[in-house]
# Entry
Amino acid sequence: MKTQMQPLTICGKILHIGNVTQGENWNKSEFLIVTSEQYPKEILIHVWNDKIEQLGRCQVNDFIIARVNISSKKNQEKYYTEVTAWKIEIDFNTMRKEVTNEN
# Structure
């Protein structure tokens, strides 16, 4: 059986943008968003290497659409899950709605 997965998308407002951490062959940063749903959730999302440039176009309080991969790794009988963005876009439509609602 062949299945086709749709890209996972997370939408929300940026609450925090972290600093860039550098290794010998990699760069990593992270940002925290709050989702725009009935019961909002805070989600920490990582970006690696060339995707940091996309995050650099964003600011705190911007509404974004993030295409992500989710992976879990087991370490000493515990699982750790990471959400990694591979595409980040500013959601100008939601930002316009927020500005209109504030007035």
About this structure: The chain is about 15% helix and 50% strand. The two ends are 53 Å apart (CA to CA). The longest helix spans residues 92-102.
